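WARN  no MSA supplied for this record, continuing single-sequence
INFO  ligand: magnesium ion
INFO  echoing inputs
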Amino acid sequence: MTNILIVEDEPRMRRLLEISLGEDGHMVNAVGDAETGLKSLRKDSDAVGLIITDLKLPGMNGLEFLQEARRINAGIPVVVMTAYGTVETAVEAMKAGASDYVLKPFTMAEMKLVVNKELDVQRVRDENRSLREALGHRYQFTNIIARSSKMQEVLALVERVAPTNSTVLLGGESGVGKDLIARAIHQHSRRANGPFIKLNSTAIPDTLFESELFGFEKGAFTGALASKPGKFELADKGTLFLDEIGDVPAPIQVKLLRVLQEREFERLGGTKTLKVDVRLLAATNRDLRAALEQGTFREDLYYRLNVVPIDIPPLRERKEDIPDLAAHFLARYAADNAKTIRGITPAAVEKLASYHWPGNVRQLENTIERAVALSQAQVLDANDIHLDGGQSKPSSGGSTGNAFLPEGMTLEQWEDEMIREALRRANGNKSQAARLLGLSRNALRYRLGKLGVPDEGE
Ligand SMILES: Nc1ncnc2c1ncn2[C@@H]1O[C@H](COP(=O)(O)OP(=O)(O)OP(=O)(O)O)[C@@H](O)[C@H]1O
Ligand SMILES: [Mg+2]
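INFO  complex generated
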């Protein structure tokens, strides 16, 4: 049971919310304007578990109310209600700290979905905080090495968030373990017996994206000889993991948003609206906020996805994990190769620990795999460990000599040249060119747009 404060000027709507949330066992305090709402918040804000407010209010508007409410107590989640066609204001509200928004007109079922999700998330945060405070508890998941306190925090969050239906946005450099964590969330959820479906956005050409996600009916396009379900349908009662979410093309972002909001969609060329029960996980190895600023990623979608962010730190920031990880991979690959390698010398561990691992855990895994495959000894020594020279940090001022911009060229011109060169090397394939440059496909597209290179898709 939670105390919910509702601010809604329209009496019938106010009454409806009051009754319907009251039926769910919540204590509802429904008021007609922002000023009254603030008054009761000031009286005892700790008693309030959730605020639902309209954005369009007489007197002080909903956005101002939100900001004031957060000044009083920033720990209370706020859900805003806004009319269709004013999504921009909802996004403003999210920026100002609202937890979620509901578009009017909505059904009570939709509202309850959002309310329950908020309360779930809130519970997770609270429990997580007190768990971190409780000393001594260590999280253990099969096949996940997590000796460092940073990984312990990640696992604490995983354990708390897994049983909820909240969308999780996994962030972290390439190879830190986003896939692994996504699967762990699924395995520890109530959906563990349902499907876990993964879609890697980078691997899919733009033209096939929609049909991959939503499926298609026979005859929807040339070549659609039979109908086929999309990933959303396949993931029904389970989890859908969207990898490299930053690479989802703009038109698909809009469609994704709708599914996230309404949990329904149509197959390509289909007329029947399909409803699914899917828990969404997303991952990105880039800073999506940069993509927001460049305008290549929709803000409203970002806020929908980023309900619970889990950031997995790079390996170089949690070196305590390196010895355990090395032993873990050693055991695995020794068994795979039918070798009897018993261990690893302190010197070898030292060598691993002093490296900066730009490719993170995956690179460590590959390094150990190679060492195991090539070693003749019973114990791996430092000289069995081959660290990729090409991947190591460029020594400052060293062998690169006087590398600088070519005479008379500006940084911008040089950058443009690099982008063109990457496209040439990739034979015009934008995904590949983006990879060569370490950019997301959308970020590359944005820069190509600035260069005046036409975007004819792939
Ligand atoms: N904490 C860990 N314990 C054991 N194995 C790990 C751990 N973290 C990562 N790995 C292993 O390292 C490899 C890379 O991890 P994973 O594929 O999950 O990374 P990722 O973040 O999804 O990478 P990318 O950004 O390239 O998709 C996998 O084989 C995974 O099993
Ligand atoms: Mg991955």
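The longest strand covers residues 78-83.
INFO  checksum written, moving to next record
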